[in-house]
Amino acid sequence: MMLPPVAKRVSTVHPYLPNVPDYYHWLKDTSKSGKREDVMEYMNAEEAYAQEQFAKTSYLADTIYEEILTRIVENDQEVPYYNNNYWYYTRTVEGEQYSLYCRRFQSIDAPEQVYLNPNLFKEFSTIFVTHVSVSPSGKLLAYVMDTAGDEKYTIYFKNLETGEPLSDQITDSAQHVEWGKDDTSVYYFSQDDLLRPDKLYRHIIGQDNASDVMLVHNADEKFYGKLQKSASTRFLFAIISSQQTNETHYIDLESESLELKCFWPREHNHLYSVDHQDDFFLIVTNGGGKFLNGLLQRTRIENTDKSQWEDVLKYNPYQPINKILAFKNFAVAVERIDGIEYPRVIESLDTANETSYVVQYDGDIFQLDLAANRQDYNSDSFRIRLANQLTPWKTLEYNVKSRTIKTLKKNNGFDGSKYTLRRVFAPIPKHTRISAPFDTPVPDYIPITLLYRTDLFKSDAPNKLHLMAYGAYNSAIPPYFSPSSFSLVDRGIIAATAHIRGGSELGRGWYETAKFLNKKNSFTDLIACTDYLVSEGITRAELLAIEGGSAGGLLVGAVMNMKPDICHAVIAFVPFVDMLNTMMDPSLPVTISDYEEWGNPNEKEYFDYMLSYSPYENIKPNVKYPNIFAKTGFNDPRLGYWEPAKWVAKLRASNTNGGADDPDKSIIILHCKHGSGHAGVTGRYGIYKDRSRDIAFVISQLDASEVKLNAAKRWRKVTKTTVTTIPTDAARGRPKLNGKTFVADNGNRLRGPFDSTEWTNAAPEANYAALRNLGFNAVHLYAENFDTTLAAGNRAAQVDLAVKYAGDNGLYVILVLANGGKNGDYSLSYAEAFWKFYAARYAAQTHVLFEIQNEPVSWGPPYNSASANPPGAINLEVQAYKIIRQYAPESPILFFSYSVLGYSGNTQAILSDIQAVNTQIHGNANAKWTNEAVAFHGYGGVANTKTVISGLLSAGYPAVMTEFGTVNNAIDTSFVSTLESLGVSWLDFQGIKTNDVSTYVLTSSLYQTPVKNVGLCWPSDFGTFPCNKAA
């Protein structure tokens, strides 16, 4: 069993904390390219430990993933909406990660045009499409993507008539783009080095970006810019905002001048938003704080001076107005009533106080979405989307004239009748009750939403419970439908949400009373919620897991320090746990803007207050904390990976996992994902897969029986599938040597093509299943590529799929660390990390063989030698072998010798390599192998390869051909015939992927036809192809 990593201690003294060394500051590496070697070594060790822990619940996570898929509609479509002669909608396709953007011309029955399909961007492992905008004529498309998770965006353009991309491309943009009055121009914000949208530009289509005209530059680093069009599309708004203050600029797109005007200049603590209707602008303003929960006003479009703003609705501090959405003949204000959003219909701005009304629905807990870009400004109706924890999104349409409502789309058929959704209310501790600015009313209770299966809820005994909370940035946790939550509640675990202060659930005052020097109110609120749930007998601490991300990670980290026994387990994703040190570093993105959330630590009052609760600084020695699962991403620009890395390292070093003599030490896991940013993984299946692991962790912490089940059934198939699979009890036994080569458990030699997960996804399971009908029983898997900028295991999710697909279909896998890319920038330390990661991961998998190392120096820099097979390559093979044998003592191993390429080598050269390996491993140059063989590549030609392999077999060393041929041609039947006559196993260099650079091994002309034409045949594990007689 692997022990958790122990980080080295390097004393760093920050000038603002001269008496408190920061021993783990060395983990902070802000470089944009590769991280320092010592950082990567430690993070790789953390990831290897994390993967070992995940292995304990891998079966459970796979089961949960399949459960999630049963609760969603994989082939789904939103309700189309009409805009400029087209019906627009998005839809999802089973097996595809991202939604397709579609439209139909004029009629909903017209042919479909898929005008954007992010699934085709195979070159990117991460895809965030943040904005999609069709030009006014409908002929051009602008869309914005982040392809690294680092929040650096690029605007792309496409001709929708030809389907071809335009040459225009704008990098370093913010995440929105808006068209101007026609197809000739777009508007966008650029981002500065802190990823802050600071400059507004107009770009002319077809012109060089250098000629783009800057319209406004906001130099104040607390403020961010964003774009938004009015509901009427006549006005473009450029909103410059901080947490406390904003100003809006606008352009009348129907004017000749296209002049940018300031609606009203920023005033400290003044927040306002604007929409347009006919001759008026509609404004929701806080009046500088006087109307903290929002006052609806209007002003004529020709005069936006604040003195001209007049009230539309009387201010109601008990019903916050969150936004206003204008239509040609009415308007809709979104209000919160008892924490739930409702639409208020305003038919006349002149008589709104007397005639406006709130549209009510069945039930009292739901999430509302009015989706402004899905509305028809000229219609007498508006769309409403509703969901809650029991009900997936449904789409309604409310007709203002008839005051009737109709259903356009129901939920996905999920049956919520077995479950209960309700709210309970925890009292706010009296000593933390404070008034909001301008005496804005705030409740003295904290809502807690509970979801549970009715028949499993215990009213007479404590229940297992998973509690989420956030409480910051004026953001609410809405009552959304989560298909993963039911994997908790179906196991008797309550899924709960605490709507604590710092969020916006109960108005702006709810937020204002838990920020700056009152931030600890969020923490005491969460403790109050857990105390209430325990006192009411709903749960108890040892049955409780809490979860928070980002600022919610700060929350759970602070609460753990205040009350270490608050719960049994914690999930903290992208957690803000090194809060004080981050806030003292203005070179980091969002630090300066966050001065208006937490305060400016350069002011002593704020510094001292932050120091009193920042999780990293307040870790207590010799205290047992809950079990912890911390998640982060190397590309996160908001909260650096080093925050949870430092936190975890200090937690372990502070003896906070229970002490050396504690038989029940806490588990502390750090998982850092490459290519992932603050938002985590992308693609719906990727998100579900990632969430399955979170849920499996919670269940494993609260239900030991599930862990035992996982250990018993790990890697057994429970997935739904449309392809034929062998029974789960027919898993392959380990390959064995027959004197010449490795053979399958039935004595048949290994034969097959290759798959690669180096840069692309594993081939579909259907393709793996189809290999059985071609006489294949093995796959050569190029798992990852030498890349010292990434951690070993960076492709683990896809490698897992390939290994699983192979095992489920009775195929063996020869797994190898490939070279291929990065100009051969090889690293012994990387190879060591790779094998520590994967040997431990697949040690128990009887269908997996390990090959070391695929062409370790063939076109990379040599290891201090100019010889054809430099000593460094042998050292790499030996060290990798020792690591594999440490973690996987029973797994077959293939050695790779550069000499076997056949260019200039011969049998004696290979034997020299073998003797060098034997000497270092066994102390005997002539040692014979019992579970090892030599891996060959056949690029020296058939004759040379035959001579070399024959000589090696005569010397008593077995061989396996792992690569020959080419991905671009049909199978080399001459080579196959030679290998068959030699009696060695072989894997061809033909791929099984689809939509990739590899050829289709499944294409008849590339494999089946040539094999049949020359009469090749061999004993097949499955079916009758090529034939069932000896070669």
From TrEMBL:
<protein>
    <recommendedName>
        <fullName>Prolyl endopeptidase-like</fullName>
    </recommendedName>
</protein>
<dbReference type="InterPro" id="IPR002470">
    <property type="entry name" value="Peptidase_S9A"/>
</dbReference>
<feature type="domain" description="Peptidase S9A N-terminal">
    <location>
        <begin position="6"/>
        <end position="410"/>
    </location>
</feature>
<feature type="domain" description="Peptidase S9 prolyl oligopeptidase catalytic">
    <location>
        <begin position="480"/>
        <end position="702"/>
    </location>
</feature>
<dbReference type="InterPro" id="IPR001547">
    <property type="entry name" value="Glyco_hydro_5"/>
</dbReference>
<dbReference type="Pfam" id="PF00326">
    <property type="entry name" value="Peptidase_S9"/>
</dbReference>
<comment type="similarity">
    <text>Belongs to the peptidase S9A family.</text>
</comment>
<dbReference type="Pfam" id="PF02897">
    <property type="entry name" value="Peptidase_S9_N"/>
</dbReference>
<comment type="similarity">
    <text>Belongs to the glycosyl hydrolase 5 (cellulase A) family.</text>
</comment>
<feature type="domain" description="Glycoside hydrolase family 5">
    <location>
        <begin position="756"/>
        <end position="986"/>
    </location>
</feature>
<keyword id="KW-0720">Serine protease</keyword>
<dbReference type="InterPro" id="IPR051543">
    <property type="entry name" value="Serine_Peptidase_S9A"/>
</dbReference>
<dbReference type="GO" id="GO:0006508">
    <property type="term" value="P:proteolysis"/>
</dbReference>
<keyword id="KW-0326">Glycosidase</keyword>
<dbReference type="GO" id="GO:0004252">
    <property type="term" value="F:serine-type endopeptidase activity"/>
</dbReference>
<keyword id="KW-0378">Hydrolase</keyword>
<dbReference type="GO" id="GO:0004553">
    <property type="term" value="F:hydrolase activity, hydrolyzing O-glycosyl compounds"/>
</dbReference>
<dbReference type="InterPro" id="IPR017853">
    <property type="entry name" value="GH"/>
</dbReference>
<keyword id="KW-0645">Protease</keyword>
<dbReference type="Pfam" id="PF00150">
    <property type="entry name" value="Cellulase"/>
</dbReference>
<dbReference type="InterPro" id="IPR023302">
    <property type="entry name" value="Pept_S9A_N"/>
</dbReference>
<comment type="function">
    <text>Serine peptidase whose precise substrate specificity remains unclear. Does not cleave peptides after a arginine or lysine residue. Regulates trans-Golgi network morphology and sorting by regulating the membrane binding of the AP-1 complex. May play a role in the regulation of synaptic vesicle exocytosis.</text>
</comment>
<dbReference type="GO" id="GO:0000272">
    <property type="term" value="P:polysaccharide catabolic process"/>
</dbReference>
<dbReference type="InterPro" id="IPR018087">
    <property type="entry name" value="Glyco_hydro_5_CS"/>
</dbReference>
<dbReference type="InterPro" id="IPR029058">
    <property type="entry name" value="AB_hydrolase_fold"/>
</dbReference>
<dbReference type="InterPro" id="IPR001375">
    <property type="entry name" value="Peptidase_S9_cat"/>
</dbReference>
